Amino acid sequence: MADVNRQVLLVEKPAGKLGPEHFKMSQGAMPVPQDGEVLLRTLYISLDAANRAWMHGATYRSALDFGGVMAGGGVAEVVESKSPDFKPGDLAFGDTGWQDYAAVKGKHLTKLPRVPQLTNLLSVYGIAGLTAYFGFLDIGQPKEGETVVVSAAAGSVGSIVGQIGKIKGCRVIGIAGGKEKCEWLTSELGFDAAVDYKGESVFKALKAAAPKGIDVYFDNVGGTILEACLAQMNIGGRIACCGAISQYDGVPDAAGPRGVPGLIVVKRLRMQGFIVTDYFKDQARALKDLQAWVAAGKLKVEEDVIDGLENTPQALIGLLAGENRGKRMVKV
Amino acid sequence: MADVNRQVLLVEKPAGKLGPEHFKMSQGAMPVPQDGEVLLRTLYISLDAANRAWMHGATYRSALDFGGVMAGGGVAEVVESKSPDFKPGDLAFGDTGWQDYAAVKGKHLTKLPRVPQLTNLLSVYGIAGLTAYFGFLDIGQPKEGETVVVSAAAGSVGSIVGQIGKIKGCRVIGIAGGKEKCEWLTSELGFDAAVDYKGESVFKALKAAAPKGIDVYFDNVGGTILEACLAQMNIGGRIACCGAISQYDGVPDAAGPRGVPGLIVVKRLRMQGFIVTDYFKDQARALKDLQAWVAAGKLKVEEDVIDGLENTPQALIGLLAGENRGKRMVKV
């Protein structure tokens, strides 16, 4: 066991776009677990748009500690345990932060099974798959034959949402940035159509791709794309609010989308937010379905694994720019 | 039976604020009911902020016919029937329009009981009471001890929502315009607090009146008041979207409230719209509760009855300016 704990520090709150200058590599002391805590060795760090949202202040987690280790979830192995719930060698998901080692309270960790492919614990069987599953099915409540739209469709969550939509018999339209991603959605993942928000008017392209209107919109981005979808929702439509990437990397818009609340009333829409951690207690149901779909070849798993803790800042910066396809993570 | 049918025509689409110049009194021929239709004599016309919203174009009803009779719901008596479901002397609720007589399809009418006080069929036992009941209880799902905020609280729907909130054991805060209305809410209707949006900062006054945050917000107004409430919602809060009065009389805001969808995600909020007519099939349950609460003295009924069809335009213009307390209607 190394006695050095490499860490990525978040040195200051970014005023505009996130850049490498906001991070610094450092070395900390090896953490010593207290009663109830577990010493973890980080294996894979999950990269999520939410990491950037946290920098704006308190969200569903407390505000970040600027100058300290950057927060983030990861898959880790238990090195030493002072919690009755864990023993050395166990795998766990938790907020390790961007560092080699972390001491975390056992009650804040989720125990993970030793699957053949550990990266799947962050993608399809982890935060991405569970977010897609619960947000789309429990909040979106799609019915066979309905039209589903998902934004950030080539991302970790969106790519799974769209495929579950096809499994459930829906017409699925993905919104993504760039022709290449759009082609991938339709040719590889079975989406019925894809809209390139960088190359065409989202409003018009959706009109053409969803001539019967939208029944479920899974929103990862907020902003003008949400506005375009709101205007085309059908009566009784559902909007699952998963994230607002368009608002995270810089100064958020001074106002929200037009149509709130007017269209919500007229069309009897339901807009509902959720956080995947609220559903962790219920994950057995999701994992059973997700595993069956993967085994049957109905759900393709796309992962984007970057090597080396020192590359974590650039991996997040690139994710915010839409570089990734599928679940991005860093192998520590 | 008179052979003259007085009518209020909507002569053009208002570009800004609604004024008397947008209406014209006229006389039409007595309508002749066709097969399946009923000839109605209008008794009371319901005035609702939604009347103004319809002028913007298609909503949950088709666009208005400018130059034609102004649309509007009312309580009417059946004069002649070519529908198997109605006979002369029956009372019905339907879209009579602003006129003495109308021929309406029987299937578009709701039969009404002959209660002692016919005005109650538009207030507590009609569109206002049912809107408050279903929107607050079914969409808002208040729990005992929670904090409820309702806007346009001195209006027909808001005044009932707040009183149901007290019946359900909630802390209830009303938002209304002017000191007099606010005092009426707390002293007469039992609200715990009232915020005068014309006289104080809604955001700050809510902070003081709802120190534990807001669990249910019943939104009649949209705009900046919705924005102030969104910012103070608790995790898991519900927003029942009933209307957007602030957006109806003039040019709607170019953008929506800040916090959509960011706060909806972070706080796992549910924002949901509804239209009372969707619940008409289920009204027996509501009427039973509403009647029991009125009988027990727990629910006070406030009505604002204006006399004369010719005064209907001014009655609507005044309602949009916040003149009324309780349910406004015109006795034809």
TrEMBL record, chains A, B:
<dbReference type="InterPro" id="IPR020843">
    <property type="entry name" value="ER"/>
</dbReference>
<protein>
    <submittedName>
        <fullName>NADPH-dependent curcumin reductase</fullName>
        <ecNumber>1.3.1.-</ecNumber>
    </submittedName>
</protein>
<keyword id="KW-0560">Oxidoreductase</keyword>
<dbReference type="Pfam" id="PF16884">
    <property type="entry name" value="ADH_N_2"/>
</dbReference>
<dbReference type="Pfam" id="PF00107">
    <property type="entry name" value="ADH_zinc_N"/>
</dbReference>
<dbReference type="GO" id="GO:0016628">
    <property type="term" value="F:oxidoreductase activity, acting on the CH-CH group of donors, NAD or NADP as acceptor"/>
</dbReference>
<feature type="domain" description="Enoyl reductase (ER)">
    <location>
        <begin position="16"/>
        <end position="330"/>
    </location>
</feature>
<dbReference type="InterPro" id="IPR041694">
    <property type="entry name" value="ADH_N_2"/>
</dbReference>
<dbReference type="InterPro" id="IPR045010">
    <property type="entry name" value="MDR_fam"/>
</dbReference>
<dbReference type="InterPro" id="IPR036291">
    <property type="entry name" value="NAD(P)-bd_dom_sf"/>
</dbReference>
<dbReference type="InterPro" id="IPR011032">
    <property type="entry name" value="GroES-like_sf"/>
</dbReference>
<dbReference type="InterPro" id="IPR013149">
    <property type="entry name" value="ADH-like_C"/>
</dbReference>
